[in-house]
Amino acid sequence: MNTYFRGQALVAFCVGILFSIGFLLIDFSLAIGLGLFIGVLNLVPYLQIIGFIPTIALAMLKAAETGENFWVIIAMALAVFAVVQLIQDGFLVPRIMGKITGLNPAIILLSLSIWGSLMGMLGMIIALPITTLLLSYYQRYIIGRGQENNSPTESSDNEQISDYTEK
């Protein structure tokens, strides 16, 4: 579980940096602070949408300050949210969490979809830990991995393969 939270923190940090860059590109005041705040919100998966509230407030301030159309500024901010979400869901989460949890990126996307449809937002939050736990139990108890080698010393992969082929 510790590695899962480290992976989630790394994803949140990357998302915060991406939001900061996006808000700097559309010339928001406090872009770096807002981006990092949304990154911190992302420690709980998909909670960064709450960051849209201060984004609207900053868009109002920018519209009042520069005289630009408020709806254009909101549309640009929404585009930043959409692009960062696409990068996060399509690249960051499968790659980072795949390496951390040892899951294939396709399994990660599938588990997020399945658990999200079954349990909604809560399912998306608990999808990766539950999937990792279920796969671990499956490998240990159903397939039987880990039962042959109970000694404190670890054997090499070749010895484990030969144990399975001899039976």
Automatic annotation (TrEMBL):
Region (Disordered): 148-167
Subcellular location: Cell membrane
Membrane spanning residue stretches: 7-26, 32-58, 70-87, 107-135
Cellular component aspect of the GO annotation: plasma membrane
Entry keyword set: Cell membrane, Membrane, Transmembrane, Transmembrane helix, Transport
Broad class of the protein's primary localization: membrane
UniProt topology in membrane: Multi-pass membrane protein
Span of the signal peptide: none
BP terms from Gene Ontology: transmembrane transport
Family per similarity comment: Belongs to the autoinducer-2 exporter (AI-2E) (TC 2.A.86) family.
PANTHER family: PERMEASE PERM-RELATED (PTHR21716:SF53), TRANSMEMBRANE PROTEIN (PTHR21716)
Protein name: AI-2E family transporter
